[in-house]
Amino acid sequence: MDPAVHEAIIDDIAERLRARLLDEAYVAPAGTDVAVDDRVRLLVDREAAGLGADDRRALTARIVEHALGLGPLEPLLRDPGVDEILVSGTRPVWVERAGRLERTTARFESEGDLRHAIERLLAPAGRRADEAEPVCDARLPDGSRVNVVLPPLAVDGPALTIRRFRPRGFHPDELVRSGSWTEPLRELLRAAMGARLNILVCGGTGSGKTTTLGALATFLEDGERVVTIEDTAELRLGGAHIVRLEARPAGYDGRGEVTIRRLVRNALRMRPDRIVVGEVRGPEALDMLAAMATGHEGSLGTVHAGSPQEALRRIETLALMAGVGLPHAAIRAQVADALDLVIHQTRERDGLRRITCVAEVISTAGGAGVRDLYTLRRGRPVMRAPLTARLAGPLEEPRA
């Protein structure tokens, strides 16, 4: 038999048996999939007895994936090389590997299959997406991040984005070997962390800001108490004394929300040596600046911005959203007092994520300005001596 015809027959049998399973309510709640897997196997053995043993096993696996699992997403989620999975309706699924987008042959046969997969993804996180809540963010048990947008907001069918969680962060030496960092940059950042400078990492979406935070954490001293605050917890810092806090959205009744700003304020009561804000995008910017300027040196944060100077303007704007009535000049002065370094991260056309600039924050007549300490010019690092005395000393000290 022609292999294509054989595969078409298998597909037809799989679809009919899967529909029967759903019609007969064979799909059980999460946690009872083993029993359902046995039912699928028995049904296949009975209804597809004419197939060989290998075909029946493959057919059983296919039905289980589609009826009980995540269908075409299952092999992508098992592939360690996939960093992000991008689904738009029933069109082919795209993935990101090593910073590059690739179109795959995987696709959902129907919008119903896709919605079923979305429900199974969100259920363990206690979240759901429906007409009342067509936009949903969630974190999977393994730490991966999920974003869902349903029609009519998503015009071409449900849009699903899964950012895979990397269980182990990159060490600075790995980043040097990959070309993301250079050796002079590694020593600069090592000295900055040792000098307990307050550092802001900026860049676009997917530029590697979280990866940089994790790598910077390898320079922490043993025993430092670090409190991390994130909208969706994905940081995995290597220190021995890490406290992880995660914001909580409002429930279905509109109550129970715990904001990043509230967690930043609470972190000050937890005796932190350093505070790490995973992503600053609201009025919590003012509280982060206050924490950095009042003794919590060596703290870290990230913000979406296209350059170090733009990052400072962005922080100023977000701090003004706090609505405390401070004049703009006072906010600018606080930015200059609180922040020491801004790291700019980019994703190049070849997919590699690189730190292209490190700037020190300086006070100017207009508030906070930046002065480049490290830049990449035609792929080669260019450095200048820092004005910040706390950084100049560690850079001059020879490593043991």
- What is the radius of gyration computed over CA atoms, rounded to a whole number of angstroms? 25 Å
The CATH superfamily of the largest domain bears the name P-loop containing nucleotide triphosphate hydrolases
Structural class of the secondary structure composition?
A: alpha/beta
- Please write the CATH class name of the largest domain: Alpha Beta
Mean pLDDT score: 83
Total strand count, please? Answer: 15
Classify the beta-strand content into a percent band: 15-25%
Helix content: 25-40%
Biggest β-sheet: strands ordered side by side in the sheet: 9-8-10-11-7-12-13-14-15
Q: Which residues form runs of ≥5 with pLDDT under 50?
A: 25-34
Structure notes:
This protein has 400 residues and is of the alpha/beta class. The chain folds into 3 domains: 1-68, no CATH class; 71-165, Beta-Lactamase (2-Layer Sandwich), CATH 3.30.450; 172-396, P-loop containing nucleotide triphosphate hydrolases (Rossmann fold). It contains 13 helices and 15 strands. Strand 13 and strand 14 form a beta hairpin. Helix 2 crosses helix 3 (53-67) and helix 11 (308-320) packs across helix 12. It is elongated.
